[in-house]
Amino acid sequence: MSLIPDHLIFLAALESALQEAASQSRPVGICLLWLDSVYHIDTILGYHAGDIACAKSLQHVQSALKDTDRVFRIGRSQVACLLPALTNEAQAVLAAHKIIRILGSHLALEQFTVHSEPYIGIALFPVHGQDANVLLQRAASALREARLRKEPVFFYSHEADAATQAQLQLQTDLRRALDDNVLTLKYQAQTDLRSGRVVGMEALSRWESPTRGTVPPTIFIPAAEAAGLMNRLSAHVLNTALREFQELESATPGLSISINLSAQDLIQAELPELLTQALRTWNVPAGHVVIEITETAIMDDQRARATTLEHLKEIGVQLAIDDFGTGYSSLARLKYLPVDEIKIDVSFVRHMLRDVRDENIVRSIIDLAHNLDLRVVAEGVEDEATLQRLIEMGCDMAQGYFLCAPLDLASFRAWLAPKT
Ligand code: C2E
Ligand code: MG
Ligand code: MG
Predict the structure, then answer these.
(1) What is the CA(270)–ligand 1 centre distance, in A?
(2) Are residues 93 and 131 in the same domain?
């Protein structure tokens, strides 16, 4: 057992174990362990206490293993167990579960007992790799999956690793797309159901990638969030949408523009300034702009988000709750939120004539919105009969393929021309 936090010592031991095992055609196992208790103790009682907790945990781990197995602390909260004398792979899993059992109880430290939920990633020689460095990376990948999935023990999986690498590639390509300014916007009309007139347009992002084809926003928005690219993407969307809106609006006055922002945008302190700048640059009155935020993001009562919403309202833009009905709304919070509009999610509107439960949900949302003096927009209107039913129900506005598909600026301008 070594207390020196150094993965190099572990790698050297692993290399010699691999050489021996290869000559005898035996498997070797690595159990990589994340000690959440050490992490917590570091932050509450300090690093000295964290070291004591780690030493205790290492003793417990060693006691759960065979004498030939070796335990190394390779990071602040990471421990690698080398199992060089396996006769079969199932033994590695058994050892991992023994470690989890022994560490999964409470750890006594000073006057406290600390709850522990350790995770283990397993990689095996030769099935998961021949080389010490590769095997350690694979055990680390398995440990990441264990923590993500909240499964105490996870075996290295090539598929899970490939999915993570594909995510990383997507994020890299998206970063380049932003550098090269290739993201565009499509616009979908919003129709007032009393007058039948087009009164607004929603900007929807599009990424035409030379290698991937059309990537939908449902894929690249989460990738932008994970890669820390959301600010750049939203700055691009805000400026493009307002510039293109300004061009259109001068020919067809009276329209409003709806722009989607993500949960991450709301924790960005610079967002109100960015929006103010963009409105000034493109000479768009704030009152013509609707900022759409999903129900899940808007209901999060994190202080920073609530402050940003207030700032946006002060600027004079309108706020809409997007995808209403798919998240968890607190009615108490809805009462106080500075919103102007509720958008009924596509998933309820699409089948409302076939499923009476959807129809009842749509009716309830319309009533709720009106009782709170909010405008209500139905998304995803795909046929005439649905449109008629929404008019009967008193819905204020609608958008959907039946009325107008999302179109690029030139096509939207042409589509709009005979209607205004
Ligand atoms: P959303 O804001 O709720 O937009 C409505 C989605 O429904 C759009 O999908 C639209 O193309 C689609 N839609 C429109 N009419 C119909 C219809 O009649 N039937 C059906 N089944 N669908 C219809 P899209 O363009 O793929 O966007 C998906 C989501 O991605 C958006 O949902 C929005 O949450 C997000 N998104 C799009 N652009 C941006 C953006 O610039 N920034 C951020 N943060 N999110 C964006
Ligand atoms: Mg939207
Ligand atoms: Mg929506």
Answers:
(1) 25
(2) yes
